[in-house]
Amino acid sequence: MSDLKGKKALVTGAAGGIGAAVVRALRAQGALVAVADRDVSGVEAEAHLPGNLLEPAYADGLPAAAKAALGGLDIVVNNAGVITRGKVDETTDADWDLSLGVNVEAPFRICRAAIPLLPPGSAIVNVASCWGLRPGPGHAVYCMTKAAIASLTQCMGMDHAEKGIRINAVAPNEVNTPMLRTGFAKRGFDPDTAVAELGKTVPLGRIAEPEDIADVILFLASDASRYMVGAVVEVNGGKPVK
């Protein structure tokens, strides 16, 4: 994927597991990267754009800020996301606002602001989820938001292909990230044991590592996927949602 050398990329959720892996991979391929998250002080990148994606003005301004900082913008990776667990009758207004704000509204705003700035040959990659394509139990709002971003990706892919902007998404299943491990700990499970047990349910024998997802994101951001538009690519190790 040498075509990424010199490309300018914006990555949201850059301090998390998948986001950090994407940033490392992009920079290893010679791309210049602007990182966005609440705290990006520990992330090595060419530009740091900390802020709260729940603030509309921040999300609206990210693409322009990245372009100004990097001297251009070719790639946008909408990776930031939150997982709200529970059935609908267990979901609070705060859960709803957080999930919709981070998982749907922020990427919508960022895409809307980025598309007029992106040149032909550029790419947007959104992070959806297998749980948005085939919803599982006990994650009603999370599944809904990831279904929304998958559908939005498909619509935008068709709408903006004529401009030479390719918009696709990756749909992971479980990934060994700090967010997943924190969730296990909050529920009283030992994260190492829980991750190992979860891995036994995957045909490949383990859950995904962040790098497994990052490599697919880089593929979708590169010219190697030049004929892919509006695709939602599952990266699940063969494990169905259940």
Automatic annotation (TrEMBL):
InterPro entries for this protein: KR_dom, NAD(P)-bd_dom_sf, Sc_DH/Rdtase_CS, SDR_fam
Residue span(s) of domain Ketoreductase: 7-175
Pfam families, per the entry: adh_short_C2
GO terms, molecular function: oxidoreductase activity
Record key words, sorted: Oxidoreductase
EC numbers on record: 1.1.1.-
Top-level EC class: oxidoreductase
Superkingdom, natural source: Bacteria
Family: Belongs to the short-chain dehydrogenases/reductases (SDR) family.
PANTHER family named among the record's database cross-references: OXIDOREDUCTASE, SHORT-CHAIN DEHYDROGENASE/REDUCTASE FAMILY (AFU_ORTHOLOGUE AFUA_5G02870) (PTHR43639), SHORT-CHAIN DEHYDROGENASE_REDUCTASE FAMILY PROTEIN (PTHR43639:SF1)
Protein name: SDR family NAD(P)-dependent oxidoreductase
Source species of the chain: Tabrizicola soli
Organism lineage string: Bacteria, Pseudomonadati, Pseudomonadota, Alphaproteobacteria, Rhodobacterales
